[in-house]
Design brief:
This protein has a domain of 149 residues. Helices cover 69% and strands 0% of the residues. It is built from eight helices and no strands.
């Protein structure tokens, strides 16, 4: 997700301003993720033993992995890392247009760091079979897609010289993405497999030294084996 292509800015070295924007936003999103990770749904007692990850959840896992790799590549491939990137923008664009372009590019850096942290956080919740995964998945995926769509439309409207597709085509592709997202969210939120897989609360709510707690887990395991 970039505004400028390689023929616009050719620079060498690392741009400290871009790195600072990326690292600051990365740290902020990680702090938020740590806070959210400690949240849990209302604890249901006895705590169920999660089902194994299988069926449609394997597809969800593959999607999350692909999104993570894509997010990393998207940030790394931005043209903002050149040493003279921001200076070249100032020379090429004057006044309000240059300032607006810089703001959009900074927001793109922040958005890409959100994509990276968000996708990594979802993978963590997914493989930990955390109870908050379905809701967190819904919120993060929708936010990610909204940010990407707003960025694409904003650039298309404000900087036509950088646009390779017209807005109707962009919206058409977006509709297809939203259909797939809606199907995934529906499966994660409502399917029986998902409901019985993502059940673990945060560790602070689990007392594994309590004999009753362990007995409940054993009972749940026996029920699962009977089926």
């Amino acid at each position: 997700m970039t505004v400028l292509n390689s023929m616009l800015v050719l620079a060498a070295g690392l741009n400290l301003s871009s790195a600072l924007i990326a690292l600051t936003s990365l740290a902020a999103f990680i702090v938020i993720a740590f806070y959210v990770y400690r949240l849990s749904l209302t604890l249901e007692y006895p705590t169920s033993v999660p089902w194994n990850i299988s069926g449609g959840l394997i597809f969800i896992a593959l999607v999350l992995i692909v999104r993570q790799l894509t997010a990393i590549w998207s940030l790394a491939s931005m043209e903002v890392w050149g040493e003279d990137f921001w200076q070249n923008l100032s020379e090429r664009f004057d006044g309000g247009q240059g300032l607006l372009l810089k703001l959009i590019i900074a927001l793109e850096i922040i958005t890409n760091t959100f994509l990276i942290v968000g996708s990594a956080f979802l993978l963590l919740l997914f493989f930990k079979t955390r109870d908050i995964f379905p809701r967190t998945f819904t919120i993060i995926v929708i936010l990610q897609e909204v940010f990407v769509l707003l960025d694409t439309i904003g650039v298309s409207l404000l900087f036509e010289q950088f646009v390779t597709e017209d807005i109707p085509m962009v919206l058409l592709k977006s509709v297809g993405r939203w259909v797939v997202i809606a199907l995934m969210i529906g499966y994660v939120m409502r399917s029986e497999r998902s409901t019985h897989t993502f059940v673990y609360p945060h560790s602070s709510l689990m007392n594994e030294e309590d004999p009753d707690f362990l007995a409940d887990l054993e009972e749940e395991e026996n029920k699962k084996g009977a089926h």
